[in-house]
Automatic annotation (TrEMBL):
The chain crosses the membrane at residues 14-38, 84-108, 128-149, 170-189, 209-227, 268-288, 300-322, 334-356, 368-387. The gene is nuoH. NDH-1 is composed of 14 different subunits. Subunits NuoA, H, J, K, L, M, N constitute the membrane sector of the complex. This is NADH-quinone oxidoreductase subunit H. InterPro entries: NADH_UbQ_OxRdtase_su1/FPO, NADH_UbQ_OxRdtase_su1_CS. It catalyses: a quinone + NADH + 5 H(+)(in) = a quinol + NAD(+) + 4 H(+)(out).
Amino acid sequence: MTPLDLSLFGADPWWVVLLKGLFVFVLLLLLTLFNIVFERKVVGRMQHRKGPTMNGPFGWLQSLADGMKLMFKEDFMPAGADRLVFNLAPFLSAVPALTAWAVIPIAGPVTVPFTDRQTNLQLTDLPMAVLFLLAIASIGIYGIVLAGWSSGSTYSLLGGLRSSAQMISYEIAMGLSLVAVFLKAQSMATSEIVEAQQQTMQVLGTDTGIPGWYALLLLPSFVIYLISMVGETNRAPFDLPEAEGELVGGFHTEYSGMRFAMFFLAEYINMATVSAIAVTLFLGGWHAPWPLSGIEGIDAGYLGAVWFLAKVVLLIFVFVWLRGTLPRFRYDQFMKLGWKWLIPLSLGWTMAVAVLERAQAAGWFSNRAFLLAAGLLLVLAFALILFGGREPEPATEEDSTDFDPFAGGYPVPPQRGQQLPEMAGVLRPEEPPRPGTRTGEEERS
């Protein structure tokens, strides 16, 4: 593998770097304003209503009106809060989401306006750029954890604890889903991964002319990343840290005004960030899709940024679609999906990609015996997945009669195969009535 050439990024003068940084910052703010209205309108259509219509043409200035309202809203702090951490937590959530865009290629070589200077529409690149993205993404979770701890509220603390469990579960699955991309591209630099996807796919030794996007070549990795990125951003159906029906507002229950606006901004910027990472690593980056990719100059210059943003908005639509159609997961369902499914599948798929890459480099695919053995192993694997599981044994009468729905004085939900007794919804005879309650005879009298 040839070493990464960083001369394209180190040759820019300071004012070009400043202009690119300002461009990324303004782009994210405008994208956030767009995403808020876009989400409310799409969810409105899904629920057979119009969505925002009052502020601005067709309601498109609704998010700007919401931002102005939060600027002038009363900003309070609980008396028992840790003041330093309480004020620092919103910035720990918002700043990493902005920083991650430093290594994301938005377009190819462009000309700086009003000058003749050529530069890549990417702030910088690193030999370990994807690891930098994962590290920055994990820092944003600490803002949520510290916000829940510093508020001094039980609901906020529970939201922060849920967020830490969510970070551990889905960060592992997300990181493992990207290992296959490293193996395929032989690089961790984002610009090189984008260019590696421009190599056309080969089918039976013939060139198809279709760019080899990793969303097609590494489909399991792409699906695992899509699920993990929803869990990483605390979006429905994985919005357990801010479950309104259980925790009032979760980790940001005690926040208001601009501090709450920072969390609000961080959530929508994180949506754009993880979508941009998916576009860069799996959907060809700023290059046009097939068959338009065959047209000369279709993604040259600033047109590359148009294709890049179109793909990002498409993935944001997936976020909105999931929120409008799926209910929130239970906590046990959420943890089971992460630990029992996504992580084992990621490990197995990574091993398979490593073996296939080694086989292709060694020329194993030219051996018919190897292809026959590989086919038999795949058939056996699918057969074990489809028919290998056994049905759970039905619960016996002894198990169902011994089930106590009030074990320890608290209601306990039945497990699989167990049934609630007929009088499970009333107090047990041996328990005295609770203080302040009236018995049946007192009610009749």
